[in-house]
Amino acid sequence: MSEGSLRKRNGAGTKSDATKGKSAGNPTDAKQSVGQEATSGGSSTIVYFVVLLVSATFGALVYKDPSIVKGPLYEFLGFEEDPFSPPTPQGFAADLLKRDAVRDAFKHAWLAYERDAMGWDEYHPISHKGTNLTEAGGIGYTVIDSIDTMLIMGLDEEYQRARKWVEEKMDFDRDGNFNTFETTIRVLGGLLSAYALTKDKLYVDKAVDLADRILPAFDTPAGLPLSSVNLAQRKGISSADNNGLVSTAEISTLQLEFRYLSYLTENEEYWDAVEKVMATIKKSSLTNGLASIFMNPEDGRFVLSAIRLGSRGDSYYEYLLKQYLQTNMTEPVYQDMYNFAMDAVHAHLISKSQFTKMTYTSELVPERDRMGQISWRLTPKQDHLVCFFGGSLMLGATTSGAQVHPVSVPPLPKELTKTGKRDWEVGEELIETCMRTHETATGLSPEIAHFRIPSDGLVGSSISQDWYIKGAALGQPAPYDARYILRPETVESLFIAYRLTGDAKYRRYGWDIFQAIEKHCRIETGGYASVINVDALPVEHEDKMETFLMSETLKYLYLLFEDDSVIPLSEYVFNTEAHPVPIINPHRRASFS
After folding, report:
1. Which residues pair with 352 in a beta bridge?
2. What is the pLDDT at residue 372?
3. Which uninterrupted H or E stretch holds 563?
4. Is 472 left (phi over 0), alpha (psi -120 to 50) or beta?
5. 388-397 helix and 489-501 helix, angle to the nearest 10 degrees
6. pLDDT exceeding 70 applies to what percent of the chain?
């Protein structure tokens, strides 16, 4: 498919002296005059301090939100917008050298996989081999996760070979247990995105076959899908590791995919299944607007468990917004759920670091005392996964939090609601924090960062004034927290932030990360590998290349440096695996409120 077919532009005198003839020679008048002056002087002092206090208060408000003054002033002067702000970008030119460097990196990864492990689910670049997720065989996780990236990058030869494999060798009749969530976001999402970009019926046919095999996982008393599904037996499988519970993020991150498939096939069963999940979640919603990370598929209720924006919680919040966007902002129930959740996140999970006041997200962990009373402990821990949230907040600010549609690029203060301004500001701050976690020996961010609080006694560490990798001791084996497994979340936020602002700093940030990946993760014989400790040189690798490197990390980096007419945010919404699907205007609306 030609690169050109993917392109489309995105498209405020003087007062008379009436008492001058008064006599100045009358002593009584003189006494009265002196008394009046004394009284007047005291009153003037009071007035002075009142004015000073009001001025200081008003000044603080203006400092915090200059739009209080700027908006009315520019309106009075006849300006539609701030005349001193940078001009609104009308289209972002591609940085061809950096864009093409990312494309070359993708080819370095893909061609090694194709050479050594074509069709296998996962790739190991050091040992030059592939592995499958089940003993029954693979379903081409890496192939399908990569196809739409090839299309976006204009890699036609690589794409044609991958399509041929899908047509001739992809087989979902595997008698093994596959994760419901991962299979949906990676394989079903990849197939649907490939169709959206090509209109090739092959991908819809394969998507229908896969979706029909996944649907039995929803056959639970509460309609919440089980964690795994046997694709050959078409049977949902409970998770033994979690005592049959299901992850909140996993069950609420299937909706974009099944709803788009329903839209394409006019099969309401797909839409109904995933909408029932959302209705159950809303009915069981915690009164504070947050969601704990586990639910019971038997009764549809939340289970006492941690509350966080990291693993098992992250994409629940992501898809609240994206479901609203997917149907062109026509389902207000998802906007209401998103706004309710964001208010709760700001109230309970957003924190400031001890020294430099970095904005980060904490976790709430439930604890039960000897009397059985439950309390919640705020833990200053942020997964790398959370770094999607900065860009997500900014996207929400310009859509759900906007007064007008579309907003300017970047948005003007008057175009955003109060909550929109809040989310925009915190989103920008979270991205800066995520970039700070790249200040390691390798320039790569660890899997988990902890932030200092006064009671932890960690002042004086050599890593950072504000954050650290827990358990990282000199000369000791690296903890899991220290890994970088080629994750995309920071560059995802950089891509969104750049598209919404046109600020070149986001491209600079992205290029720094890309260069760090090239320097420390690239395997010269082909492919990229995870780094075991981001703060140790020379690096030690883990022999694994996650599928999301080609699906997400390199795709978002490529789009960061590409012209903004490629996959415009006004026309597409990305699933949580970075597979773009079109914004649609369906004939139905949410059946719950």
Report:
1. 359
2. 86
3. none
4. beta
5. 30
6. 83
Distance CA 386, CA 333 (A): 24
Angle at 158 between CA 157 and CA 159, to 5 degrees: 90
Q: What is the 3-state secondary structure (H, E, C) of 526-557?
A: CCECEECCCCCCCCCEECCECCHHHHHHHHHH
**Percent of the chain having pLDDT more than 90?**
78
447 is known as an active-site residue? yes
pLDDT tens digit sequence for 51-108: 455 555 555 444 444 545 555 544 444 444 454 444 445 468 999 999 999 999 999 9
How many angstroms separate the CA atoms of 484 and 387, rounded? 13
Of the candidates 414, 338, 426, 421, which has an alpha carbon nearest to the alpha carbon of residue 390? 426
Return the structure tokens found at 53: 């206090």
Q: Which two tokens stand for residue 316?
A: 């629940």
3-state secondary structure of 90: coil
Q: What are the structure tokens assigned to 264, written together?
A: 């394409």
Domain membership of residue 350 (yes or no) is yes
Which one of 447, 489, 492, 577 is the catalytic residue? 447
Strand (E) or helix (H) holding 580:
strand 580-582
The structure tokens listed for 360 are 């980060």
pLDDT value at 113 more than 60: yes
Residue pair 430/414 in contact (Cβ under 8 Å)? The answer is no
Q: Are the C-beta atoms of residues 577 and 145 closer than 8 Å to each other?
A: yes
**Could you give the residue ranges of the DSSP H alpha helices within 78-200?**
96-117, 141-153, 156-169, 180-182, 189-198
pLDDT in tens, 266-283: 999 999 999 999 999 999
Q: Does the pLDDT of residue 29 top 60, yes or no?
A: no
Whichever domain contains 116, its CATH number is 1.50.10.10
- List, in order, residues 6 or more apart from 48 with CB less than 8 Å away: none
State the Cα–Cα distance between residues 491 and 493, nearest whole angstrom.
5
3-state secondary structure of 282: helix
Judge whether 193 lies within some domain.
yes
| Count of other CB atoms within 10 angstroms of residue 394 | 28
What kind and span of H or E run contains 154?
Answer: none
Task: Assign 361 to helix, strand or coil.
Answer: strand
Least confident of 22-36, 95-109, 155-169: 22-36
Nearest to 259 by CA among 203, 181, 337, 326: 326
Q: How far is CA 334 from CA 54, 331, 339, 355, 469, in A?
A: 41, 6, 8, 37, 36
Range(s) of the domain holding residue 481: 66-582
For residue 576, tell me if it sits in a domain: yes
Q: How many domains does the chain have?
A: 1
**How far is residue 273 CA from its own chain's centroid?**
25
The rounded distance, in Å, linking the Cα atoms of 259 and 591 is 14
Residue 48 in any domain: the answer is: no
Q: Determine the pLDDT at residue 37.
A: 43
DSSP of 428-442: HHHHHHHHHTT-SSS
Angle at which helix 96-117 crosses helix 156-169, to 10 degrees, equals 30
Burial of 90 (0-12, 13-18, 19+ CB in 10 A): exposed
Q: Is the dihedral of CA 158, 164, 165, 170 positive or negative?
A: positive
Dist. CA 91–CA 198, nearest whole Å = 24
- Of 186 and 476, the structure prediction assigns the larger pLDDT to 186
- Work out the number of other CB atoms within 10 angstroms of the CB of residue 113: 26
